[in-house]
Amino acid sequence: MTLTPRTRKLSAYAAAVAVLLGVFLLYLRPDFLVTLAAQIWACF
Predict the structure, then answer these.
(1) How much is the pTM?
(2) 14-41 pLDDT, tens per residue?
(3) Could you tell me which of 20, 42, 24, 43 has the C-alpha nearest to residue 32?
């Protein structure tokens, strides 16, 4: 199956939107942010 340039571009945009939406949803969970901050702080 060959993808046209338009289909490839739309797929890339859809993937980018999905990733951004996932990151946004993670920021709505405070426990995730606290865990992430603790893990980053443990590196120093």
Answers:
(1) 0.62
(2) 999 999 999 999 888 989 889 989 999 9
(3) 24
Cα separation of 35 and 30, whole Å? 9
How high is the pLDDT of residue 21? 96
| Torsion, CA 41, CA 31, CA 20, CA 1, rounded to 10 | 100
- Provide the residue type at 10 as one letter: L
Q: Which residues of 9-43 are buried (b: 16+ CB within 10 A; e: fewer)?
A: eeeeeeeeeeeeeeeeeeeeeeeeeeeeeeeeeee
Whether residue 26 contacts residue 32, with contact meaning beta carbons closer than 8 Å, is answered with: yes
